């Protein structure tokens, strides 16, 4: 009979990592994606008449021309459309593109700031994006729809903590929310952050000149709303950050 050896317990740190789900999103992000899909499905119900669709877009899209007229002489659409426009999308490609970027950048931000602050961030970043769009296209009657401005705001917020190294170590995207928050000055000294911002600006500059690299090229892209959202997220993220206010002045990224 062969001698039996007692089972050996492998140290925890030497054990292979367990299977990690391909998508492990915070519930609030899943809810956000679900809300966008529900709204998109409602937009595309086959029995809507043209008059009903026109009413829907007029009532919930952002239109700069609203603010060129006295608010007392119109309905209350000016009050909610700076937010509700971010829930509407013009095509499947439009919502898929925004949804993918939302999963990438919203997840670490939501894990860090929590549900309530995330919802407030969405509302205010949407309004900031719409504000810059209205300033540039003052009095214009075109419709602004889509979550791109909010996604850009989340990108800007992520630049303050998701890219830097923590304690000299790189962490995965699942743990990026644990990184310390960089100050604005330190962010601009981080090679990783600066490289990302430069590429992001270059992409929006191409869009401004009518060159679309990715996304829905069949529709005009509100590059200015992207910039408004990004600046909001990058400059004001500290107001939403619930973690200890560690402002690093040096970055090794």
Notes on the protein architecture:
- By secondary structure, the chain is mainly α.
- It has a single domain (27-239), classed as Rhomboid-like fold, CATH 1.20.1540.
- Helix content is 51%, strand content 2%.
- It is built from 8 helices and 2 strands; from the N terminus they run αααααβαααβ.
- It has a two-stranded parallel ribbon with strand order 1-2.
- Helix 4 (92-136) packs across helix 5, helix 4 packs across helix 8 and helix 7 runs antiparallel to helix 8 (223-236).
- The longest helix is centred in the middle third of the chain and has 45 residues, at 92-136.
- It is globular and about 50 Å long.
- Residues 1-22 and 248-253 have low confidence and may be disordered.
Topology readout:
Elements: H1 27-43, H2 50-60, H3 77-84, H4 92-136, H5 148-158, E1 181-182, H6 184-187, H7 191-208, H8 223-236, E2 247-248
Parallel strand pairs: 1-2
Helix pairs in contact: 1-4, 4-5, 4-8, 5-8, 7-8
């Amino acid at each position: 009979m062969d001698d039996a050896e007692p089972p050996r317990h492998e140290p925890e740190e030497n054990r292979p990592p367990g299977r990690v789900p391909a998508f492990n999103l915070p519930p609030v992000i899943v809810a956000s994606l679900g809300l966008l899909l529900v709204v998109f499905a409602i937009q595309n119900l086959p029995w809507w008449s043209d008059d009903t669709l026109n009413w829907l877009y007029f009532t919930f899209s952002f239109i700069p021309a609203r603010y060129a007229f006295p608010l007392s002489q119109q309905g209350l659409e000016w009050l909610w459309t700076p937010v509700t426009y971010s829930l509407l999308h013009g095509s499947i490609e439009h919502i898929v593109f925004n949804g993918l970027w939302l999963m990438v950048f919203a997840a670490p931000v939501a894990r860090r700031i929590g549900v309530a602050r995330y919802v407030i961030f969405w509302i205010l970043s949407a309004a900031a994006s719409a504000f810059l769009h209205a300033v540039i296209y003052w009095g214009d009657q075109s419709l602004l729809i889509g979550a791109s401005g909010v996604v850009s705001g989340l990108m800007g917020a992520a630049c303050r903590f998701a890219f830097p190294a923590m304690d000299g170590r790189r962490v995965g995207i699942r743990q990026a929310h644990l990184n310390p928050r960089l100050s604005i000055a330190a962010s601009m000294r981080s090679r990783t952050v600066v490289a990302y911002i430069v590429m992001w600006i270059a992409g929006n500059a191409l869009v401004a000149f009518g060159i679309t690299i990715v996304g829905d090229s069949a529709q005009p892209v509100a590059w200015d709303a992207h910039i408004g959202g990004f600046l909001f997220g990058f400059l004001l993220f500290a107001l939403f950050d619930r973690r200890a206010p560690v402002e690093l002045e040096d970055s090794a990224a």
